[in-house]
């Protein structure tokens, strides 16, 4: 055990040197820090043979966490091991000051070089858990609204009951205030809150205020980054939001940046800390063509409603001030707009319902600002939201439709993999299509859906064909999710709104 721990520490130090996380001269220093974490007073005497440097440190970290369990340093649960792995990696991660300085040097050369280096560092330091994320199922599937991207999230491990119990017993510290706060980098974590010794952020100035860029540890798409306010203040879509979007994309023209809406139901999972999400990626929505070309009342702005199930107004142009003016006008008008015939109410019982999900990118010297109209009204018929996936879709998706899904990338829960596996049996004839799954079978919620699928495919498919048919039907459901979230289902409705601002169909 001690020999294995020693060997693995040597390998990890080799890895950190090879990846440029530490300087070769700091080998003995880093080894000593690792000995401290492993609670060892000296390395064992071993015949050490270096090996080829792997892509990620995962294997070494797993081994050291296993050793720590056996040596009684940590408890057996998955969360204890995760906290420990991060503590180990924290020893080998460059300090925040070093990261800022390196990023700055490369940025002076080109913004792409700075982000490329920082992204790779976050992967090498295991802050982005590359191997775990690789377990996610990802596929593209044709749907009534074009090709959609679907990720079934298998990287989140099941909660260990021992961790749930331990978390309950812990005093609530309220520190850090949330998972996005600037207090996170360097934090040791605890059961129920992730360790962040290997987490680093880059300070930025947006709209004259202090913001930070970090990568998302979940990495739902290439170079998925988060840009967060220095202060723990709630999400708010306003004039300043648009200014910050432009300031960011001006500094990182190879990245898009967008914001979740600022109201429950139509916002993301974190509403209490103002933040954006961005990255180096194109989404299905970016491929959507113009459906209604408009004359924009603001000079220098090209406008259209795009061919997408959610109501999205696309503004294009080279003049950022003109685009911000047009966005301000649209936001203000939409905040106050009602269309009772279409169940759109700006306000009920003192609660405001209208907001916008804005997304900005720059292409070929031209800005593209997508403004997606949102409304979070609930009714007795639709208690989770009128413009939210309706009840018949909840077996697939019940959660908020945030920025990423708005753009056509669906993040679905890991449970679906085994449930779909169960459903294939109906389509291959292994299980009679008349056999209704009994409670508490998780297949029960999908039963009427699989019967529907079987009507077109029959029940004599191969396993592979069955899974394909389910994925195809899944994409149809995802398109329906977007359609339910769309505030205007028809051209006349959106034109009536835009006409109030002086937009005319071109
Ligand atoms: Zn916060």
Number of contiguous helices: 15
Q: How many E strands?
A: 16
Spatial extent as radius of gyration: 25 Å
Mass-distribution shape: globular
The SS-based structural class is alpha+beta
Relative helix content: 25-40%
Kindly state the mean pLDDT as a whole number?
A: 96
Which hetero compounds are present in the coordinates? zinc ion
Query: Largest beta sheet: what is the strand line-up?
Result: 3-4-5-7-6-13-14-10-9-8-16
Distance between the termini: 74 Å
Oligomeric state of the chains present here: single chain
Low-confidence stretches: none
Chart the SSEs and their pairings:
Elements: H1 2-18, H2 27-37, H3 58-70, H4 78-91, H5 96-109, H6 111-124, H7 130-133, E1 137-143, E2 146-153, H8 161-169, E3 202-206, E4 209-215, E5 225-229, H9 239-251, E6 256-258, E7 275-279, E8 290-295, E9 302-306, E10 312-317, H10 320-335, E11 347-348, E12 351-352, E13 354-363, E14 366-375, H11 403-406, E15 409-413, H12 415-428, H13 447-457, H14 463-485, H15 491-499, E16 504-505
Parallel strand pairs: 2-15
Antiparallel strand pairs: 1-2, 3-4, 4-5, 5-7, 6-7, 6-13, 8-9, 8-16, 9-10, 10-14, 11-12, 13-14
Helix pairs in contact: 1-2, 1-3, 3-4, 5-6, 9-10, 12-14
The structure holds zinc ion.
